[in-house]
Amino acid sequence: MHNPLRPALPLRLVDAPPAPSSTTPQAIIRVEDLSIVFDVPRGQVIAVDRVSLAVMPGEFVSLVGPSGCGKSTLLNAMAGLEQPFEGLVTVAGESMLGPRPDVGMVFQQPHLFPWKSVRRNIAHGPRALGKSKAEALRIADDLIEMIGLTKFANAYPHTLSGGMQQRVAIARALANQPRVLLMDEPFGALDAQTRAVMQDNLLELRGRINATIVFVTHDIDEAILLSDRVLIMSAGPGRILRDLSVGLPRPRSSAILTDPAYLALKRDCLDLIRSEGRKAFEQMETVA
Amino acid sequence: MSVGRRSRANAAGRLSVLVGVLSVPTFVGVWELIARSRIVNAVLFPPPSTVAVAVLDWIHSGQFFGDLSASLFRVTAGFLIGATGGIVLGVLTGEFRLVSSLLSPLFHILRPIPPIAFVPIVILWFGLSEAGKLFLVVWGVFFTVWLATHIGVQKVDRGLIRAALMLGTPRRQMLSEIVLLGALPYIVVGLRTAVSISFYTLVAAELAGAFAGIVYRIEIAQQNMQTGQVMGGLAALGLLSFVADRSFAAIAERAVWWR
């Protein structure tokens, strides 16, 4: 059967720009002593507990951890969708007081505007920022070509498959040319085959855009395959347990899945996550 | 065997189509027979032929179109005003908690009072003027549309709002596009319910005293013992209401074009 997700993107594979090793390494994202607390019916829950991290321009960083460890909350704080209880989140030197067009986000669900065609969904951001209709549509058409959906430019979201919808969501987030692209388990709702294709697409896409990417996932393979760095988070309250550099060469492909260096890294990650997951489970049991 | 079963199924299908086509003519025929057989009082229960003659007289006298346009104007104007108000306030109360705290308790107290119960006070306030009739229709339509919009706005997919926020959507566009279109499927259901409600309230408004209108004509005919005319008026009202509902359903289908 013809897979509509297959049309290989006409892109070159390009290595990610190395993290700047100049004399003044300036992080684009800074999280300092961040705590986020949620009110619940019986008191408060600490979702993120005194987390600090820095992401360099052009870096691809994954946040990995068990369900409910606060990784999505941490990402939402970088997006300006959650406000710190304590601490500070800055992007490009400015505090994230609310959503900002230079920080784009792709959610687990595509959340496309159902009343707009693919083209107009992607053109929404540039239009919202005051670009002319013609300019916005030109940007949209370029991105549609890049994600290989030219045939579907005028289709409505409900007529597309889940993978295609998520590609449109990525293109829509890129239309504002964000400096930072945040991705919250973007492939988590897709089947395994589609997810593999989407991961390849994202690796290719990365060569074309300059955005720094922070990627939340609970899939270790996905995190290692895509990232320069993997941050392992502990069970709630969320803390960063370990900061692992992925020294595997780029361009990468699924061939690294058998690489001994990869396997060692994966074993480390899994051990940490297993023990954390168990802790989280026990905590839940004692609460219940 | 399967062929036999299919042809039997086909025969049953044809039979029900035939019965469906004959349903209304048979009913009218039986009515005509009963009314003419003197089993019932033909003055109170006139045959369809008498009703048809009364309707033709109504049209020939020139009163019909005056009555029709008077009723149509009340329903249409009342619906448009009530629906617009309902949508605007529904978006405001659905979106802004402060506005909701201010208005929702009041609306929830007023909403369950049947609009017909307002006829006496409307007569005190507006006399027999058009304003009073519009008021009743607007009142009936407004609360239905307001509630549907209010609920629709609160049920707008939060993910869409967040996505729109991340793309830098300005506040005004957020309300006029994302929230309004996100709530549209609910609003359309409210509007369709309001179409029938506008006809109910029209009846109350015209019974309360008018100088033209389909229900007004029914009432005058009743006072003159013109039972045929009464039934003709009921048929006209039923037809009008039916056409309004069906046209609205057709419009609604296209209004939520992305489904």
Automatic annotation (TrEMBL), chain A:
Pfam families in alphabetical order: ABC_tran (PF00005)
UniProt keyword annotation of Iron present: no
Disordered as annotated region, ranges: 1-24
GO molecular function: ATP binding; ATP hydrolysis activity
Keyword Cell inner membrane: no
Span of domain ABC transporter: 29-260
Keyword line: ATP-binding, Nucleotide-binding, Transport
InterPro entries: AAA+_ATPase, ABC_transporter-like_ATP-bd, ABC_transporter-like_CS, ABC_transporter_ATP-bind, P-loop_NTPase
Family: Belongs to the ABC transporter superfamily.
General function of this protein: Involved in beta-(1-->2)glucan export. Transmembrane domains (TMD) form a pore in the inner membrane and the ATP-binding domain (NBD) is responsible for energy generation.
Protein name in the entry: ABC transporter ATP-binding protein
UniProtKB/TrEMBL annotation, chain B:
Membrane-topology annotation of the record: Multi-pass membrane protein
Predominant location: membrane
Lineage of source species: Bacteria, Pseudomonadati, Pseudomonadota, Alphaproteobacteria, Hyphomicrobiales
Name of the protein this chain belongs to: ABC transporter permease
Entry similarity comment: Belongs to the binding-protein-dependent transport system permease family.
Domain ABC transmembrane type-1: 68-252
Example of a GO cellular component annotation carried by this entry: plasma membrane
Source organism of the structure: Bradyrhizobium cytisi
BP GO terms, sorted: transmembrane transport
